[in-house]
Sequence to fold (325 residues):
Amino acid sequence: MKRRAFIDRSSLSLSSLLISPKIFSTPMKNKTSKNTFQKSPYVLSTWNVPSATQEAGIALEQGANALDAAVLGVAVEEANILNTTVGIGGAPDRDGVVSLDACVMNHEGNGGAVVAVENIIHVAALAKDVMEHTPHVILASKGAQKFALDQGYTKENLLSESSKKAWLKWLEKGNYTPEINIENHDTIGMLCSDGDGNLSGACTTSGLAYKMHGRVGDSPILGSGLFIDNEVGSAVATGVGEEVLKTVGSFLVVELMRQGKTPQEACEIAIGRILSKQVGKPNFQVAYIATNKKGEIGAFSIQKGFSYTQHKNKKTNNVPSNSAF
Ligand code: SD4
Fold:
């Protein structure tokens, strides 16, 4: 699953990427957890996203906090017009409308999310703005867009020519069931641990290709697409959101780690929970990645083909995940 970064990495830096007027203006509160074991920053991202992961890693190495780094990192894929599952260029719904979902969570247990947002590229930054500048956790659709415009975001056409072409081809069959296959699951979920050992994360997606208009998946739902507990660990999901929502997947992974499971064991049990409701081999993909306060990492998926990208000790590499089938 190769992608070329739309934005040249060198053009992105802590000082130059103005995805949100406020992205780096929030003072770090320096609230560290009681059990900080890991001080060397690291980043984990779903799928093969070296540019985004490295961007976040470099930001952490330069002293950014985990939340700022995650939002900055996923912004690389949100701006990548060739990535048909995130941000600009994302596959539209069955009516030809691109709508985006995103959420963030920080080490203090705060979160923000936006669902079904049209015409705004950097929805993870917008989710962070919801967290930091409203009394709410989730803003939806037109309300989220109005908030974005008030915050200084600009309206963009998110439907690329090639995504439009693919949608028109899909329409020829008149098949109004969202397609479910492992190729269209490339949500970027990113987990960051910063120099203070604090955990934060972001998850951003255009959702399932050709979904019903108004459909919202797991990715912007705290506890399903993403969950952070700075005392325990963090987890993020990708794949068919309906299955993750029904098992509150990322929360489950973190709660399993709280009970003493390693991140790997927790991801495997959470995938097992989904499989336990299925008869035979399912035809959909779900994958989790997770990390704990010791810096241990886990990843597991239903189907073969899932991988995650990590940035650790100044190196970025892609790691294949084990799978149930
Ligand atoms: C969703 N979990 O909307 C997302 C899909 C996904 O790449 O992972 N897309 O259900």
Q: What stands out?
A: The chain has one domain: 42-173+185-323. The chain is about 25% helix and 20% strand. The mean pLDDT is 88. Residues 42-173+185-323 form a domain with the Glutamine Phosphoribosylpyrophosphate, subunit 1, domain 1 fold (CATH 3.60.20.30).
